[in-house]
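Lab notebook, bench 4. Still working through the backlog of constructs that have no structural model yet. Next entry is a single chain of 392 residues. Request: give me the structure tokens for it.
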Amino acid sequence: MTVDELLKIKPDMPSAETVEKAIQKWNSVAKPIGGLGELEKIITHIAGIHGKEEFDLDRRALVIMIADNGIVDEGVSQSESDVTLKVAKLMTEDKSSVGEMIHGIAVSGGSYIDTFPVDIGIKNGTPIGGRIINAKIRAGSRNFMMEPAMNLRETMKAVETGISIVGRLAEEGYDIIATGEMGIGNTTTCSALLAELLRLPVETLTGHGAGLSEEGYAYKCDVIKRALAKYDLNEDIFSLSVKLKEADPDAFEGDIPDMQMINKLHALAALTTFGGYDIAGLAGVFIGGAIHHMPIVMDGVISVTAAYVAEKMVPGIKEYVIPSHMGSEPAMREVFEEMGLKLKPVIRAGLHLGEGTGAVMLFPMLDMAMSLYKSGSTFSELKMDPYKKFTE
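Model written out:
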């Protein structure tokens, strides 16, 4: 996939007609209108994504992008990068935190969630044995304090990897995909990326990650500030626009791109500069959701950042995004507000584990809502007058 091909993607909107049918179906169920709140809205929205009033969520997948982040060299994390490989090995055996949780869901009678760990940039090797998709682009991103985390070719390859995985899962008949990640240092990466795109103070967007002292947190913020000051992305945007125009004379009218194209190029330049491969790969997953009409469930701050970058590069992908939870990282609230999602996260438990743990927590809740949506007694069956709707 070329840059011009990526930036020209125009997602279809979910079916408004199907959404309306799903709303009427909900309103026929013998309960107060909107009684399940956001869960009703999520089910209704997924109906629109699939374009079917009657649909299933039985086949579900979790795609976990795993990559190391070169910024770890600056001492911004309490863990070393070798932890990424160790956790990745556990993921291939379903023994990581999210694997144990998925097992718990299945034991309790819930539908199983097929896990697809992806080595898109592990530094210290690739897990041997078990299940893993080997899509390694490089052994970890570069230290963006010294140089850009990725080059443009690597960024595009990571995005394309995410898109292709969604395409494969869609062909295999999956109904919904959750997102997860693993990579020591990636909260620093995403804070730098968001600070560049949102133009908000670093402290507003930066949390303590997997666990930092106040001194460590202050140092982490200082590293991000110094890195942001190092780069002038306006020059990168100009360079990208020239390359895009050379590759495709019709990429935009005239010699200067319009503001929407500048915003797209800015997101691509920022992603390339600060990385990492896990975020770029997840951005591809979200774009793939829009291409293949697949609902994609966001997890924590890394996943949310990837969805936001994807929306900046390909406006409209947010229509295929399902939020799961409001995590403890402060950036999540800012990104949710900036994206303007139609749906709201239904879990507020201060989660900050990653791996897709918050995303898979949503599935049992959706199962219960789907049970009522599909089989709930209707007002007509009970010979009851339906509720009337007086307010939005």
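Notes after review: Strands lie at 60-67, 113-121, 133-134, 176-182, 296-297, 321-322. The longest helix spans residues 152-171. Flag for follow-up if needed.
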